[in-house]
């Protein structure tokens, strides 16, 4: 069974802290994605990656960076957390050729105070 | 015009009812469309794909109207377990990204 896991379900951080959100998939998928989901705005793509060490900006990359050192792991980094980054963060992966069939992790609810 | 628009609902229907909701899209060149389902406090999961005129899977039917640029999701014989938010998803023009609608919430009551 397909599985995407995220390091934390809930996280509370202070403004200015560096935050790491980890995502791991066990399906040997090439493609991995980071989204944030906010009420009334839907899911918005932050960054995605087609392969190890590759990354592409999504629609809202400002204030974020990513790292993909291993195929199964895709990390989202908030260099200096701000209150407007309080959100639900969802990681997803998909196999090559099935870009649109994305499997999501359970999400991390991040609160920045 | 937003790339993908959905009525947020909620649609409140009794068990056994038939319910349908639409999603409009702005990119007339889009060739494929998707419905994802998201249960409360859970992650989205792919429900159905729509590539041409439509797709049917059990009680669920997805249809495409290219002339009016909308897709619809019809649920027959609604079950309590169908209560969820249904996300309309369209690939972005000329990129590999998905554009998610904000979702339509369905609540099925006994």
Uncertain runs of chain A with pLDDT below 50, 5 residues or more? Answer: none
Overall number of strands of chain B: 11
Number of helices of chain B: 0
User: From the alpha-carbon coordinates, what is the Rg of chain A to the nearest angstrom?
Assistant: 13 Å
Query: Alpha-carbon distance between the termini of chain A?
Result: 37 Å
Main sheet summary of chain B: 6 strands, mixed
Structural class of chain B: mainly beta
Radius of gyration of chain B: 13 Å
Descriptive notes:
The complex is a heterodimer of chains A (113) and B (110). Chain A is mainly beta and 113 residues long. Chain A is 0% helix and 53% strand. In chain A, strands 2, 4, 5, 6, 9, 10 and 11 form a 7-stranded mixed beta sheet that branches. In chain A, strands 1-3-8-7 form a 4-stranded antiparallel beta sheet, with no helix packed on it. The relative contact order of chain A is 0.33. The model of chain A has no long low-confidence stretch (mean pLDDT 94). With 110 residues, chain B is mostly beta strands. Chain B has strands at residues 4-6, 11-14, 19-25, 33-38, 44-50, 54-57, 60-65, 70-75, 84-91, 98-100, 104-109. Chain B is globular. The chains are: A mainly beta (113), B mainly beta (110). Chains A and B meet through strand 5 and strand 10 of A and strand 5 and strand 9 of B.
Write the SSE topology.
The complex is a heterodimer of chains A (113) and B (110).
Chain A lengths: L3 E3 L3 E4 L5 E7 L5 E8 L3 E8 L6 E2 L6 E7 L2 E6 L8 E8 L8 E2 L3 E5 L1
Parallel strand pairs in A: 2-11
Antiparallel strand pairs in A: 1-3, 3-8, 4-5, 4-9, 5-6, 7-8, 9-10, 9-11
Chain B lengths: L3 E3 L4 E4 L4 E7 L7 E6 L5 E7 L3 E4 L2 E6 L4 E6 L8 E8 L6 E3 L3 E6 L1
In short:
Chain A is mostly beta strands.
């Amino acid at each position: 069974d397909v599985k995407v896991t995220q390091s934390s379900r809930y996280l509370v951080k202070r403004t200015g802290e560096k935050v790491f959100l980890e995502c791991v998939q066990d399906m040997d998928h090439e493609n991995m994605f980071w989204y944030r989901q906010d009420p009334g705005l839907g899911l918005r793509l932050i960054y995605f990656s087609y392969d190890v060490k590759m990354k592409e900006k999504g629609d809202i990359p400002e204030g974020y960076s990513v790292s993909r050192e291993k195929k199964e792991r895709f990390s989202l980094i908030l260099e200096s957390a701000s209150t407007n980054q309080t959100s639900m963060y969802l990681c997803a992966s998909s196999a090559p050729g099935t870009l649109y069939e994305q499997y999501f992790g359970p999400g991390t609810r991040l609160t920045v105070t | 015009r937003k790339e993908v628009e959905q009525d947020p609902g909620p649609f409140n229907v009794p068990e056994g009812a038939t319910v349908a909701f639409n999603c409009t899209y702005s990119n007339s060149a889009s060739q494929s469309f998707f419905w994802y389902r998201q249960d409360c406090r859970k992650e989205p999961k792919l429900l159905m794909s729509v590539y041409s005129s439509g797709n049917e899977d059990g009680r669920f039917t997805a249809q495409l109207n290219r002339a009016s640029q909308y897709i619809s999701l019809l649920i027959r014989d609604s079950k309590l377990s169908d209560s969820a938010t249904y996300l309309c998803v369209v690939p972005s023009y000329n990129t590999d990204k998905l554009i998610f609608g904000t979702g339509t919430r369905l609540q099925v009551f006994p």
